[in-house]
C-alpha cells in the first residue's frame, strides 16, 4: 500500500480538473477525447508521471463521456463513439425527455467505465506476465495483428492499410537507432534534413497536428458554422422524469454492452465507434421490443454509452501490457509516457507497481467525478456546447503550438512539423487516407522494423515467423481471422452499396 | 554478422524452403525494412488505382458533364462549397504566426514573450476571420478572449511551470 503516499490532494484535483475539461471537449462537436489529451499534454510537462497521468486519465474518461451531451441534445455525436447514442437519445429529447436521456446515459457510462476498469485491473498484469516471454518474432506478429485489425475498421480496406503502411514509412525517417541495435545510418531523407530529422519526426507534433490542426482546417473549410442555433430553447424536462428504475431489467444489457466495449477496446488499434455500434446492434437483437429502438428507447442509450465508456479500460489493456495503443487516445497517452522516460511494454506494470496502482485509482476516481459532475451539473454543461467556435479554435491552435514547441524544449522545427501534419491530415482525408491507421502505423513502425529485422538476423529464415512457437501460430490464426473478417466486411459493404445505388 | 546456415537443425528444415532464407548485411540493414515498406506501398497503390481508379474516373466524367449543364452546376456548388476565405485565411495567419514567433521571441530571450506577443494578435485576427455575425458584442468578447487566454496560458506555463516558450 505504499502507493497511497502518492495520492496527494493535488492528484485528485488534477483528475477532477481533467474530467471537467475532458467533458467540455467531448461535449463540443468536432472535438474529441483524443484532441483533449493531445492539447493538454503540455500541461503535464511540468508534472511528474503520476500527477501527469492523473490529469490525462481524467481527460480521457471525461472526453469519452462528454460526447453524449450533443449526441442526445443535438443529434451530433460529440465523439465518434457516441454515434449510436444519437439513435435513441435524440428522439427522447424530441419527446422532451432530454434530461432523462442524459442521466440514463451518464449512469450507463459510469457502469461501463467502472466495469472496464475492473477488467483492466484483473487482466492487464496477467497478460503482461504472459507477454514477457515473447521474443522479437511474437512481438512483430502482434504489431502485424494490430495493423490488420485497424485495416478492418477503416472505411475502405485498401486505403486503410495504405494509410497504416504510410504511417510506418513516416516513422522510419531518420536514423536506424543504435540503441535498438540498428547501425545508426540515415535513410529516407536528404543530407540537408539531417540536423532536423536526426531522430525522425517527434510523435507529439505529429499527433497534435493531425488531430488538432487538421480538424480545425476541416472545420474552417466548412466555414466554422455554429451547430447550436441561437435562441433555440431546449426543452429538457417535458416528459417522463429520470429515475433509476430505467435500469430495471437492463442489467444484462449493461453487462453485455460494457463487456463488448471493453473487449473491442482491447483489440489493438480499434476504438471509437466500433464498440458502441456492436453493442447497439446486439441490444437490438436481444431486445424484447426491438421495434422501439431508434425511436427513443432508454435501453438504446444504455447500450451505446455503457459500451463507449467500456472502451476506456479496454483500450488501456494492450497499452499497459504490450505497449500497443488500443485506440487513438491511448496512442497519445504513449506520448505522455515517453515524455517521462518510461517505456511501455510487458515489464511496465511489474517495474512500476506504484504507478500502476495510482493509475487504477485515477481511473476509478475519474469515473466517479465524471458521474457526479455530469449528473448534478448537466444543465451547466449543456450551456458549454454553446461556446462559439470562433473563440475556441484560435485558442486550440495556440495550445497546439505550446505543445509542439515545448516537447523538445524549444525547437521551432516541431512547430513546423505540426503545420505539416495538420495539412497532411487535412489533405490526406480529401483523398481518402485515414488518420487512425496512419497514427497507429506511425507509432508502431519503428518497433516493427526492429523486431522484424532482428528476427531475421538471428534466425536467417522467413519461416521462423511461422514456426517459432505455438504463440506465433496462434497469432497467425488471429491475423488470418482478422483479414478474412475484413475482406468479408468489405464484400458485404459493397453489396449494401449496390443495393442503395 | 555470422551467417546462420551452419545451424544443423535449421538446415534440415530449411532444405525444402531455401526460398525463405534471408541474410541481412549489417551495414545495409537500415535499408532492409524501408525497402520492404516501399514495395508494399507500391503494390497497395497499384491495387488502389485498380479498384478505385475506375470509380474516380466515372465520377470525374459525371462531374464534367454536369458542369456542361448550366442549371445543375449551381445546385452542386451549394452542397459542397469550400469556404476558401476562412480556410486560406487561417493557413496564412497560422504560417505568419509560426514564422514571426521566434524572431519576436529573440528580442526578449527566455521569457516566452515571443509567444505572448504574437498569440494575442493571432487569436484576435483568427477569431475575427471566423466569426459570422460581427457586431459590437462579438468584438468585445473576441478582444477579451484574445488578450486573456494567451496571457493565462503564458503565465501558467512559462511563469509557474517554467515551460520553454518561444
From TrEMBL, chain A:
Any stretches that span the bilayer, and where are they? 12-37, 49-74, 101-124, 157-176, 196-216, 355-378, 390-413, 473-491
What sequence ranges are listed for the domain DUF112? 14-440
Could you tell me which InterPro entries the record lists for this protein? DUF112_TM (IPR002823)
Specify the domain of life of the species encoding this protein.
Bacteria
Cross-referenced Pfam families, in alphabetical order?
TctA (PF01970)
- Record keywords: Membrane, Transmembrane, Transmembrane helix
- Is Transmembrane helix a UniProt keyword of this protein? yes
Respond yes or no to whether keyword Metal-binding is given for this record: no
Its name, as the record gives it, is Putative tricarboxylic transport membrane protein
Taxonomic source organism: Cohaesibacter marisflavi
From TrEMBL, chain B:
Tell me the domain of life: Bacteria
Q: Which residues cross the membrane?
A: 31-51, 84-101, 113-132, 139-157
Q: Which InterPro entries does the protein's record reference?
A: DUF1468 (IPR009936)
Q: Which UniProt keywords apply?
A: Membrane, Transmembrane, Transmembrane helix
Residue ranges constituting the DUF1468 domain according to the UniProt record: 32-166
What protein does this entry describe?
Tripartite tricarboxylate transporter TctB family protein
Annotated organism of origin: Cohaesibacter marisflavi
